[in-house]
Amino acid sequence: MSTTAVRPPDAEQAGRRIEEILDRLAASGDREVCGAAEELVRVLMDFYGAGLARIVALTGQADPRALDRLLRDELVSGMLVLHDLHPEPLDARISRALESLPGRPVELVGFDEATGVLRVRSTDAGGCGCPSTNTAARESVEAALACFATEVAAVELESAGSSAEPVLLQISPRPVTAS
Fold first, then answer.
1. What is the pLDDT of residue 15?
2. How far, in Å, CA of 173 to CA of 111, rounded?
């Protein structure tokens, strides 16, 4: 048995791979095969969804701490979100995703449910603020949210110390002093 850690499957990648396979089958022109493949995916999703629902219910009743550990797992959380079974409300899942980031580099500013835009602020006041740093931070937030809160369509990152109103700095000449 290998001692190399196996990275858990990514729900988004798995979904893309399923779509690719179904598209290949559709391109074959055989409607019966394509229909059977789509039905197979639906039946498996329903079956696994029912199993996940039972696991969440039984675990929560037996040991709420065990349920919390399951909800912190990216793979399990992603599957629960995929099946619309996640027991936590969206704001709790967003908080959980942000808390999972190493060093907690951002804080929540707000979420607009109508647009799906999540606004976060960098907590690293020492960062350079350059576009590549901001892009990397935004991408790490998006990756964390992919498993916990798929309702988030976009992430807007504010720099540390930024506010809605810019601060006006008044500069005036020094008073003349007698020498």
1. 79
2. 44
Q: How far is CA 155 from its chain centroid?
A: 10
Is the confidence at residue 174, as pLDDT, over 60? yes
The 10 Å Cβ neighbour count of residue 56 is 19
State how many domains the chain has. 2
SS3 88: coil
Alpha helices in the chain (DSSP H): 11-27, 31-62, 64-72, 74-82, 90-99, 131-148
Q: Is residue 47 part of a domain?
A: yes
pTM score, two decimals?
0.65
Residue 179: inside a domain, yes or no? no
In which domain, by residue range, is 28 found? 8-87
> Does residue 81 fall inside a structural domain?
yes
3-state DSSP call for residue 117? strand
How would you label 115-136 residue by residue, b for 16+ Cβ within 10 Å and e otherwise?
eeebebbbeeeeeeeeeeebee
Looking at the fold, whether 59 and 97 belong to one and the same domain comes out as: no
| Boundary residue ending a domain (33, 68, 87) | 87
What confidence tens digit (pLDDT) does each residue in 57-114 have? 999 899 989 999 998 888 888 889 888 899 999 999 999 889 888 887 888 999 999 9
Quickly count: other Cβ atoms within 10 Å of residue 43's Cβ: 10
Contact 152, 111 (CB under 8 A): yes
